[in-house]
Amino acid sequence: MTADLIAFVLLLAVTAYTCAGGTDYGAGFWDLTAGGAERGKRPRWLIDHAMAPVWEVNNVWLIFIFVTMWTGFPVFFQTVFSAMWVPLALAAVGMVLRGAGFAFRKASRRTAARRLFGALFALSSLVTPFFLGAAVGGVASGRVALGTEASARAWSNPTSLVFGLLAIATTAFLGAVFLSGDARRFDAPDLVDHFRGRALAALAAVAVLAVVALFVTRADAQHVWHGLTRGPGLALVLLALAFTFATAWLLLRPPGTWVRVTAVGVVAAAVLAWGTAQRPYLIPTSLTVAEAAGAPSSLTWLAFVTLVALVIVAPAVVLLYWLDTHGELQSLTDADLRPGAEPGGDTDGG
């Protein structure tokens, strides 16, 4: 019973990281496709200002996922990281280069350096979600089992490829929706329309890839396909579909705040559907939750730590997001630091 609870907590953490971290990766995607220096100046300005206050906090979910995996399900952790170390290492390198690129671009004054670090940030924003999605696809297709050695076959298969592309499309969708809302907050109507159009295009790509994923899993990951087409998995798929139509409808209307809720609902319902479809396995069809679970005492303490984190950390994260979305976390500029200047007087960042 405790193992099932911790497995559900792990799934919720994956969902949180997909939604929160995915928004940041999506911003990097639109940074890459913004165009040349002049054409992409304003979209990149918005991306810098929107991401700066909270972009690092989203990695908290990733750390929590790793801790839960190696503490609660050590066999699962060992199996996945042994067989999937190549895509996971590439994803980790992408995270490091992405963070460095974003930070150094903001600090650089020379145009050439800003372009270099900007390209590093943008390209890494594609590499990381793709390889994370590819690793998930390898697990879902059952190509990873206890004792499996690392090989390209584990993560370069039809399910991995579709999951990797779906991860990129999903992050692009979330990023565009949130950037559209940030453009409204910064009173930039041209950027509102800019990112709303891209959000609709990305949502269409997500829908197409989701349909492709169903056909691919039917042939390549049958256990997951059966879980997605019946019972709770099917209910969550239908919920994701409902959120998809709601999001498309809201994106076609005057800008509002509810579109962020429905956009997150699309992605969260889809991730929960995948996790539910794998029951009772962590790795279909070779490793169940019960078989992968650690010592009962470890699971009990992990449940206790999770409760403490829920009480202490969750409210802080919610407050941080609330402050950010209400414009209370604007960074200081050079003008703010001059003698006699009022803090927040210049929000353009130059």
Order of strands in the sheet with most strands: 1-2
Strand content: under 5%
Q: H/E element string?
A: HHHHHHHHHHHEEHH
Low-confidence stretches: 332-338, 341-350
What is the typical, i.e. mean, pLDDT? 86
Q: What would you call the quaternary organization?
A: single chain
The rounded Rg comes to 21 Å
The N- to C-terminal Cα distance equals 56 Å
Task: Say how many strands there are.
Answer: 2
Amount of helix: over 70%
> Could you say which overall geometry the principal axes of the C-alpha atoms support?
globular
Give a quick account of the main beta sheet: strands, pairing sense, barrel closure. 2 strands, antiparallel
Number of helices: 13
Helix/strand class: mainly alpha
Describe this structure as you would to a colleague:
Helix 5 packs antiparallel against helix 6 (111-140), helix 8 crosses helix 9 (222-228) and helix 10 runs antiparallel to helix 11. The chain contains 13 helices and two strands; from the N terminus they run αααααααααααββαα. Mean pLDDT is 86; it is low at 332-338 and 341-350. The protein starts with a helix and ends in a 25-residue tail after the last helix. The chain has a two-stranded antiparallel ribbon with strand order 1-2. Helix content is 75%, strand content 1%. The chain is globular. By secondary structure, it is mainly α.
